[in-house]
Amino acid sequence: MKNIAIIGAGMTGLSLAYNLQNTNITIFDKSWRAGGRASTRKHDDLIFDHGAHYLSQKHKVKQLNDVLNKLNLLKEKEIIFYADFKKNEKIKKKIFVGKNGINSIPKGIFENIKINSHFNTKVLKIFKNKKNNYDLYTENEVFKDYDIVLVCIPFFQAKELTTDYIKFSNNHIPEYDPIYTLMLSFKEKTHLKIDGGLNLHDDISFFMKQNFKFPKLKSESWVLNMSSEYTKKNLDISNVELENYAFSIFKKILKVDNKPFFIKTHRWLYAQTKTTYNSLSKKNWINSKDNKIFLTGDWVLGKSLSDAWNAGLQLSHYLKILDI
């Protein structure tokens, strides 16, 4: 049985683990849990989906849909949503959310797979040993003798980790959009009768109430995404300055008199794929000459959770052809 290391426990890594369950898999992630950007953040009694927000009903990855239904990980919500706030395009929108936050989706998949895992474990170096297999070095430990290494982390981190074994083309470099996310909560309910929307302002591309996802929330809570253009221009802004600016827009445009008792920033450097690797190269992964190291992730096919899952699914098909 092949000994396989998966670096990165986001949706792509979980997709590979799910589809290669007949092998000996160990998954590594620098975070304390699976999920990557499918992240739910808690602070005392507050809770926010501050990475990926929901799963679209229009996603076309049948296997992911089947897995989520089989494991009963979704709930459907109909929300009042501005398709474009600036144009006053308000609609009723049906979406899927995690039953206990967006992170409950990858968490449920991970718990179902039941594979070896090392969280809070950042792989710093990949080294080819005398057996022509690969050893993984972390800060305090060495994990030895993997036949196959599947790297499912943001492209630039994956490239840095594997540059000794893969020749990268300068013509096939995917692009990311960085996005600042802000979480804010009010003790008293606001007058707002909407659940979210797009294009609140040139500098705020997305906003969504959290209460319809988490009905037990006692405080009215919101997540704001700054636009990628604003984020790129303000990479050095302090959290306090950013939070004051973002709330001033929220308050002015939505005419909110309440003052938040909680406000927090999260900086996603690799928030979503802007230009995919597939669109540049027509390929669905990157591999070493010996077909033992493979790179993939949401940066291959697109920015959504279903794109990330599909990237792992496509690579798993190829690995099965190789009889891995």
| Strand line-up across the major sheet | 5-7-6-14-15-16-13-17
Query: Helix content range of the residues, please?
Result: 25-40%
CATH superfamily: FAD/NAD(P)-binding domain
- The secondary-structure class comes to alpha/beta
Percentage of residues in DSSP E strands: 25-35%
Number of strands: 19
- The gyration radius over C-alpha positions equals 21 Å
Q: Low-confidence spans: pLDDT under 50, at least 5 residues?
A: none
CATH fold annotation: FAD/NAD(P)-binding domain
In the CATH classification, which architecture applies?
3-Layer(bba) Sandwich
What is the end-to-end distance? 8 Å
Morphology call: elongated
Q: What is the count of helical runs?
A: 9
What is the N-to-C order of secondary-structure elements (H for helix, E for strand)? EHEEEEHEEHEEEEEHEEEEHHEHEEHH
Largest sheet: 8 strands, mixed
- Provide mean pLDDT, rounded: 96
- CATH class wording: Alpha Beta
Q: How many independent structural domains?
A: 1
